[in-house]
Amino acid sequence: MTSATSRIASVLISGAIAAFAFAAPAFAAGGDDSGGATTPTCKKGEVYDKKTQKCVKQSGANITDENRTEYAYSLAKAGRYDEALAMLDTLKDQNTAEALNYRGYATRKLGRTDEGIGYYLKSVQLDPQYAKVREYLGEAYVIKGRIDLAKDQLGTIKTLCGTSCEEYRDLNEAITDPSKI
Fold this sequence. Notes:
By secondary structure, the protein is mainly α. Helix content is 64%, strand content 4%.
């Protein structure tokens, strides 16, 4: 290997190591659809307490509704749909845009698409500017074969956050290739 080739290889390897080191915390923490770290999932019967950053017993835990809602979403994203729904059942206020969206997501993933759509529509009523619920509603419409309604949601998302936001990209991909849902 020539010294020039050796220097180039060294630079490439250093760059790759630096890129991995920079990205490693994101891989370790997991990721959600918003690009941030997801809440870790705990054993059944426990909930992740953001304040103490530990899993605690679900019963008797003094955990906020916001914390419980985020945890329910983490459970749903981990494929633990029934547990996500059970967590959402523990909310003092179950009628928030986020709680209804995540309830819709979990029920849709359990194959109850029409029920999921009902929750999504209630979420949209509470917060018409909530792009994530519009993405999931659009995906449900794709599942139902209602591409026209999915494209309507895509158009709304475009007005909310443009074409480069994750919600737009994900729904556009689902419309283009429904097997990605």
